[in-house]
Amino acid sequence: MDRKSRLLKFVKVVKDTYEKLSEEEAPVKLMKKVKGKSPFHALITTMLSVRARDEVTHRVAAELLRKAPTPEALCSMPLEEIERILKPLGFYRQKARNVKEAACRIVEEYGGRVPDTLEELLKFRGVGRKVANIVLYNAFGKPAVGVDTHVFRIIKERWQLLPDAKKPEDVERFLMENLPRRMWGEVNRYLVGFGQAICKPINPRCEICPLRRECPYASKGKE
Ligand code: SF4
Q: Could you give the residue numbers annotated as active site?
């Protein structure tokens, strides 16, 4: 089977597996509820999720956005109050500065609306390519692939579909070239949930994985 066919087959199995996982097993599912409320919710929640666990991020993001549900409200919130709410997250001081600055720039430079292009989103401090792509899909339904550590690890090391990948952009390009556009946005969620519940960073649960017979990483372990 060629690389593209293997990718399509593996992603389909992962999608079916993801759908059966609980929110406890795959906390990425919790994030959808907060992100889905508005483009602003999607932006702030995704910015807060960097280097943080989804089960903590979704709770903290929901609290912040309940108190400051619009760019205007977050821009006017005192930095100390934002820091207090974000404290359970790593890098909370930096994140507090970044989300407040983003909210103020949205008000002052974008008429209160989150911009809907990669180029503009990348201008915000605290927004890299992964965050921007996730926002483009979640907030605006634009086809874009967000590559985080789960996606990178599974494609490169576990499925060995792109063993020479050096950076997330290599995996992003590979997925865009080989998956139909309608799957670009959701593939992040499927692979993140699968990575949280089964193909974990340390000690992947190959014994219960539906891909264990075809996965190169699992077969190597058996040699
Ligand atoms: S068999 Fe193991 S390494 Fe391969 S995808 Fe499943 S959990 Fe990950």
A: 130, 148
